Amino acid sequence: MRGADVELSGISVSFDGTTVLDHVSLSVTTGEVVALLGPSGGGKSTLLRVVAGIIAPDSGIVRIDGVDVTRTPTHRRGIGMVFQDNQLFPHRSTLDNVAFGLKMARVGRTERQRQAGDWLARVGLDGMGSRKVTELSGGEAKRVALARTLVNEPRLVLLDEPLTGLDLKLHNKLVDELTDLLRATGATALLVTHDVDEAAAIADRTVRLDEIQNAR
Predict the structure, then answer these.
(1) Closest to 212 (Cα-Cα) out of 17, 91, 16, 47
(2) Domains, the chain, ordered by start
(3) Can you give the pLDDT of all 216 residues of the chain as single tens digits?
(4) Fewer beta carbons within 10 angstroms: which end of the chain, N or C?
(5) Whole-angstrom Cα distance, residue 18 to residue 187?
């Protein structure tokens, strides 16, 4: 897995006449983990969705490795995203959830199951591939969501409040595990959080959204 340089230039987004992002600019270097801080409802998650291609900006440019991908479909950006609510498929097993992206990439069944199993082991869920995701604990579901994202070796990982809703002990354990995984893979990552301590533990650099707006 290799990371990517990411450059956001003058990103603006409005919904129903209300400005959510106002000329946001940010550069992230290959392999760097950057935490984006700001109040709830301040536009952090919207910015991640612009980078992912889920939301098209009203203006501005998204570049990955110097290439303008502002209008490029999500599946062609080489991006993985971990959402706050995990977004696992309840009708699929734990293993099949992790292997889903590989299946979409037309990786053969035997190979995708092997890779998915390897990633379950890496996130501490070895031997749990046959479990229903509806039977998983909150921490286990977070691990599955992370494995499902990283198994495809994205060059950029977007994490939207990925550790919300956990008790303090489990939260702190997963902070350490997430930090180690991101360092081991070498992926570039952009983490949205409201937790200053979480940001400091995981990220190489912390940026406040209000500090990178209005950069005209």
Answers:
(1) 47
(2) 29-42+73-205 (3.40.50.300)
(3) 678 999 999 999 999 999 999 999 999 999 999 999 988 888 999 999 999 999 999 999 999 999 999 999 998 999 999 988 878 999 999 999 999 999 999 999 999 999 999 999 999 999 999 999 999 998 999 999 999 999 999 999 999 999 988 889 999 999 999 999 999 889 899 999 989 999 999 999 999 999 998 854
(4) C
(5) 34
The torsion angle over the Cα atoms of residues 96, 102, 104 and 107, rounded to 10 degrees, is -110
Sole residue written with tokens 């603006």: 12
Helix-then-strand count for the chain, H and E: 6, 9
State how far the Cα of 10 lies from the Cα of 216, in Å rounded to an integer: 7
Counting every residue, how long is the chain?
Answer: 216
What pTM was computed for the model?
0.92
What DSSP assignment string belongs to 56-91? --SEEEEEETTEE-TTS-GGGTTEEEE-TT----TT
Token match 């069944």: residue?
109
Residues 6+ apart with CB under 8 A from 21: 11, 12, 13, 43, 46, 47, 50, 57, 213
According to DSSP, the residues that pair with 82 across neighbouring strands are 159
Residue type, 91: H
